[in-house]
Amino acid sequence: MKNAAFLTVAALAAATAFSGAASAQTFNTGDFARAALEKIAPEADVADLTNAQAVAVYQAVQDENTAANRAASAEAMIKSYQ
């Protein structure tokens, strides 16, 4: 009986871990990051960024407090890549 309960808990934990990783993966793609950056900093040219650069800029600007700070940081980082 204890083995059945343990296996059930282990299976639920594994399923939760896999589903969490799959849902988080969406936010680490270059296409998602470019689309978000176009909204954050519409004047910046995000089309020429590589996937890694777009994700790096997107993740870096998430820590900013205001929309103006996010836009300024995103534009500065994008310009540094070009």
Question: How would you explain this protein's 3D organization?
Answer:
The chain is mainly alpha-helical and 82 residues long. It has one domain (2-81). The chain contains four helices and no strands. The protein has helices spanning 2-25, 30-40, 51-61, 67-81. The longest helix is centred in the first third of the chain and has 24 residues, at 2-25. It is globular, with a radius of gyration of 19 Å. Mean pLDDT is 76; it is low at 3-15 and 19-23.
Main β-sheet description: none
Rg, Å, rounded: 19 Å
Category by helix and strand content: mainly alpha
Q: What is the total domain count?
A: 1
Percent of residues in beta strands: under 5%
- Count the DSSP helices: 4
- The ordered H/E elements are HHHH
Give a concise summary.
The protein is mostly helical. It has helices spanning 2-25, 30-40, 51-61, 67-81.
List the defining traits of the structure above.
0% strand; 82 residues; 4 helices; mainly alpha; single chain
Helix and strand arrangement:
Elements: H1 2-25, H2 30-40, H3 51-61, H4 67-81
Helix pairs in contact: 2-3, 3-4
